[in-house]
Amino acid sequence: MKLLDKIYEKLKEVPRGKIVTYKILAESIGTKAYRAVGNIMNKNKYPNKIPCYKVVNSDCSLGCYKLGKREKIKRLRKEGIKIKNNKILNFEKVLYEFK
DNA sequence: CGGTTGACCAAGT
DNA sequence: GACTTGGCCAACC
After folding, report:
1. Helices A3-13 and A34-42, axial angle in degrees (round to 10)
2. Which nucleotides of B are covered by protein (CB under 7 A)?
3. pTM of the full predicted structure?
4. Residue A52 is among the residues annotated as catalytic for this protein
């Protein structure tokens, strides 16, 4: 199983209304390639299959999104996550931690 | 196989 | 605040 697939698996594991950071996501799959995670997402093969918008930066800013930042915000808000000034509100509350 | 590129991070200036 | 620096590592060329 490739790292790429692990990322998808983990991402699918994130429940509705929760998000993760690139760092946590990377470390949860046993790598420190948090930077590569973003790289992979950008070239991701299943943009509609994977909820990429649930992945944000560690400093609770949004980061980028293949389909646009607007779309990211829109979808996140739809899940009950509040965003202001390009930052996640209640960051720790919506942050999903892998076990 | 080496070099470059990132949807990054943390610490420093 | 904004910017730079050094580090990280998979994917790409």
Report:
1. 90
2. 5-10
3. 0.91
4. yes
